[in-house]
# Entry
Amino acid sequence: MILFPALDVLGGQCVRLERGDRAKATLYNPDPTAQARRFLEQGAQALHIVDLDAAFDGQSENAPVIERIVREAQKYKAFVQLGGGLRSQEALERWLTMGVDRVVVATLVRENFALALKLCEQQQEKIAIALDLRKGKVATRGWVTETDLAGDDSAERDLDAHAWLAPFIARKCNIGAVVVTDIVRDGMLSGSNNDLTLSFARTLPYPVLASGGVASLQDLVSLARTGEVAGAICGRALYEGMFSLEEALAAVAACREEIQRQH
# Structure
C-alpha cells in the first residue's frame, strides 16, 4: 500500500477542510511547496494534491504553486497525483504534460461522460476516478453537487456506485485508480471507513485508494494488512501530529513485508 500525504491548496496556501466545507478551512502552511518538501524529505514517495479553488469554482490561480510542488516532487522522483477542477481535455493534458503522473476526475464523469470515457481510453492509468460518497450520494463540483444513488438500502447504493464505473470496465479502460472518500469522515479525524474502501477494493478491477478520516496508525495498518488496498491518502492526522510521516511509512512497510512473508 502506498501512502499519499495530502496537499490541499486554497488561495495559494496549504489547508485542510472539514467534510469538504470551504468555510471550515484550517491553515497549516502558507507555503505548500515548503510543505511538500517537508513530506518528501521525510520519505514520501507519492503526493496527493488537490486544487480546492478549481474544485469549487472551476477556475483557479493556484497553477504556479502547484507547478512548484510538481517540480519539487520530480527532484525526489516522487509520484504526483492531482485533482480538483479538471473538467476539460485541455486541463488534463496540461498537467500531464507538466509532469503530473496521474490526474483525478469526478465532475467530468458526471457532466461529460463521453469525454471522460474517451480520455480514460486514451490516457489509461494516468487517470483516476474519484468516488466521493456522502450518505449514499456521489458528490461532485467540490462536493457541493450531489447525485442520488438508487435504492434505500446502503448495500444497494454501494452496488449502484459500482455500476457508475461499469462503462469503464466494459470498455476495458485501464484506469489508474479509484479514489474512495467517505465525505462525512473527511478531515474529521474520526477514523477511516475501511469497510467502505474494502467493499470497492474487493469488487473493482482497479487499484483502490482510501481517503477520508484517517486518525491513527491503526487505521493505516488495518488497510495495509488486507493487501487489497493500493493506497491511502492522509492529511489532517499528519498535520495535527497524530503520528509522523516516518512512523506511518514504517508501519505500512512492515505490513507489506508481513504480507510478502506469508506468500
User: Anything to note?
Assistant: The chain has twelve helices and twelve strands. The radius of gyration is 17 Å. Residues 140-146, 148-159 have pLDDT under 50 and may be disordered.
